[in-house]
């Protein structure tokens, strides 16, 4: 009866492990598909389209015709700088003319007045109307002149999806109907106009059109898609996707470790039965068929239950994530998540169970029935390991496709799975030789742990793998999210003051200081283009990075600074120095990589009609998502201070100081205030939602870990009972038996905790550095969590589950 | 037979267990006495109750009825903890499947019962015991690397290491070939002769049966011959 009971228990654990695996895959695919869809749509909204073709020249209509033939929606916009007069003062504006159905993704938001409620709209300004942004809110209700025409400013434009990019350059927006533009006669030959043709449609059609577009674009035309949308949002979204990918892979690794351990446990339980059936003359093929039927039944039921669990879990995730960007998660109508989950369950179950099955049916019965004859076989070990590796690799490739993160995670899993047993075996041997004088209790425990027949090292390695994955999800997640959030503290600047004239810089500085408003140092802005590198025309250099063209085609702001700006770090060279040659420039690391710049390179910049040359003396890393003034190029003051320049600074303007803004703008009318709190709130929202979603994967990970723990404890239960009964026969008292188990589990916990923390720290460092591009601080908390949780959980669970062992009759040793 | 010379006494002992089919009597109304230095061999068919009887005499199990006296203590009145204390250092065991601690050396296995009872000379006594069974050259060998015969020698050395007053052996040659089994039997009786330890042996082996001072025959839980 006991054997039967144990067998049912083993199958039950394997069943639950498979259910969890299928459940993880189902829910993660369902939810990540939905999140991806939402993220893509959100990113699309940043472009107001799925794909944009931008040019300084008029865009040929053939693109539009092709897009329409491909079933895409098309919209056009033109933007240019112009001026309007407010109280007879000219005011620079960013004029944008759009046609219907702009925007193709996202919606405009308008209000009747600055304090009025916002309203999303699919409309664009009627002919003869303009909408103006909050910086010139006072114009709503009045008539303004643009070129040769007058317009009614009817609405306040409060949100414009594709307004982004170089946010420091934004002058107040005026939005008009494209059909009115010609009549204004603002666009004349030689005008600096930015033409945009926007495309949107279903993903396949957009992808097809993009391929055609890439082969058709002319010089000066630039394709913009989700990949080069607004940098601060794009990085947030990319990180979120990577977090999810990491969490899913790690959770899956734990679930598969649970299947592996339970498969081994089941095989051990079944071995005597298999040997007996073979001794009775049942053929290998017959046995294989019998067990394949059992595994098949288990897979079908576990898949159905797992899909049900995953399907239900998505609603919890949906509940947590709803409202991301203020929108509900879109529905995914596809069988792919369910079919993939079923396939993953099958691969995991087969990959981990079949080698044991083949082993059991091909091993001579006497080897099983007489354990003394049972010798380890390298071939069998290779079969089990090889099959597990193939299964893990197949599952990861199915789920992550060609993701580098998936391949790296597999490498990590393999490294752990191969190195951990060696390390654990080595340390147990080292501890064993350290003292041979006394056997009881330490040496006794170490001997038992080292005995391969108990599979202690195998179980410890499996458990370590699980703990490493949990640590990476939990602790490293906290570290990474923590650092990410630390880049967005509550007290970072929420306003940029731009277009500050040189003569106003000191006055504004005093104005802010008198009101205790925290502000960054003022930075001068000189608009420049990079034309030559080491006296070679930049557009003639063949760069390996396709993004190089983007860096060269755009004008960007060059500033000068005496001190290295906040959160900038010199990675190569030395910061600008007065003592060396005057023409020095510090280059941002990303730009340096794209343009293959090195220390000592000579850059030629064109500023208006003038040219200047400077030597690269340092390369800086910049935290772009910190919402502080950041620059690709910082020169020394002597080099650029003679050029026309405006200034900018960032400031943290609290609600109590908002009234002062009006006074500031009255006193310094050229200044434009740029409120970035909404963008910051969006990025913060992404971080918070990502964190909530990751908690769900963490729950799956914990559920798998419990299965691993139960399987691990169950695995040695029979041997432990026989050992306890032997010790009883040898006169051990209950206290001595109790100490055996407490010390055994504590020692296992300490070793598991130590190695898990070490591996998790190393993996955390690698993942932070290579996948999240973040600094990883070696954290004591990883070690504390790892050691404390492993020792506490194993000791408590182990001794609780083993409490029956103390009451085992010593007769068991006679009967076994 | 003098009362103080009695090592083990069973008085109308019965053992009943619960099964799905109802209560099953494994031993029924067994009474017998074993004096110190005696070598008693218990024989009987499989399932006759031999091992249960051995377990009751050694205090490894609790009788359902009757009295089991070991070294003057009535084991039926003691709990497992108290029975373990009575066994401590006074009772040795040799099992059919050896039951050695895997991953430990011969010496460590022999030291184990000595250290469990807090003997400070465990190492020296264990070495002496291993010398007695002819395994002085294998003291640091892991037991899983020993042959079956050698493993049973280690088990015998472990059983004798505490200088027990009585040694219980359950089919000690059952897992060994004939030649090795004979050597093990020789060793056990040789050590018993040297130490004067009482020996209670369960076996099927004809050779072992003949070497006992007395044979006890059990059949269907009843004592047929004593």
Write a structural description.
The complex is a heterodimer of chains A (816) and B (226). Chain A is α+β, with helices and mostly antiparallel strands and 816 residues long. Chain A is built from 22 helices and 23 strands. In chain A, the strands form two sheets. In chain A, strands 1, 2, 3, 4, 5, 6, 7, 8, 9, 10 and 11 form an eleven-stranded mixed β-sheet that branches. Chain A has a six-stranded mixed barrel with strand order 14-16-21-18-20-19. Chain A is elongated. In chain B, the strands form two sheets. In chain B, strands 6-7-8-3-9-10 form a six-stranded mixed β-sheet, sandwiched between helices. In chain B, helix 3 (106-116) runs parallel beside helix 5, helix 4 (122-132) crosses helix 5 and helix 5 (148-161) runs parallel beside helix 6. Chain B has helices at 50-58, 80-87, 106-116, 122-132, 148-161, 178-195, 206-211; strands at 6-19, 22-35, 39-44, 65-70, 73-74, 91-94, 166-170, 198-202, 214-219, 222-225. By secondary structure, chain B is of the alpha/beta class. Chain B is 34% helix and 29% strand. The chains are: A alpha+beta (816), B alpha/beta (226).
Main beta-sheet strand count, sense and barrel state of chain A:
11 strands, mixed
Percent of residues of chain A in beta strands? 15-25%
* Global shape of chain A: elongated
- Greatest interface by residues involved: A-B, 36 and 39 residues
Strand order of the largest sheet of chain B: 6-7-8-3-9-10
**Tally of helical segments of chain B:** 7
Number of strands of chain B: 10
The termini of chain A sit apart by 15 Å
Q: Which class best fits the helix and strand makeup of chain B?
A: alpha/beta
Gross morphology of chain B is globular
Number of strands of chain A: 23
Series of H and E elements of chain B: EEEHEEHEHHHEHEHEE
Q: Unreliable stretches of chain A, pLDDT < 50, 5 or more residues?
A: 1-8, 165-169
- Figure out the total of helices of chain A: 22
Radius of gyration of chain A: 33 Å
Query: Beta-sheet strand percentage of chain B?
Result: 25-35%
Q: Enumerate the spans of chain B where pLDDT stays under 50 for 5 or more consecutive residues.
A: none
How is the main sheet of chain B built?
6 strands, mixed
